Input
Amino acid sequence: MHKIKTYLTEELNFSKQTIKKMKFNSNKFYNFIKKRRSVRDFDKKNFDIKIIKNAILAAGTAPSGANLQPWHFVVIKDSKIKRKIKLAAEKEEYNFYNYKAPKEWLDALKPLGTDSKKDFLEKAPYLIAIFEKKYSLSGKNKVKNYYVRESVGIATGILISCLHFSGLAMLTHTPSPMTFLNKILKRPINEKPFLLLVVGYPNKKAKIPIFARQKKILEEISTII
Output
């Protein structure tokens, strides 16, 4: 008879709240997170890297396919490396704005006032390069990962939420392609850049487009049946 392999389990530690408390907490979180804004003007002021480490640990609690945790976070604080990233990103962005992007995309970007210059990549005290791993390496063996982009996307959302909760501003930056990050950061071939997160304090004169705070209402983004 084939013996079924069993795994150790433990009792779930779940803190049950009253409905009243649940409604209060969900509304409190919504009112807090809706103040998050993408910032492009950063202050050079530094802060304790422990805040970044805690946020990455929080991101690492995200659900993932088969709990394989197919992500890697590279924190960049070295000014020389940030300079290399800026130059490489601006090269890709120049090609995007001048040759690759269709007119509809450029029209959609106009209200943001963005261009190929990415000074924030040097001004912000920290960059976090987030990598997705299609497979992991165990010695010379490849271990396939599942639901990779979904898993890394969820982890990134938790990372952003934790950093916002900690009092920091961010910008999600995705020059295309981002393969230059593998070379500059010396990452292995099984890792693919997912997103570059710019983190720091906003400049005192930082501004955001008014339309950026205009989010869709509940009825536009959900259906209850």
Remarks:
- The beta strands are 71-76, 126-133, 135-138, 141-144, 169-173, 191-200.
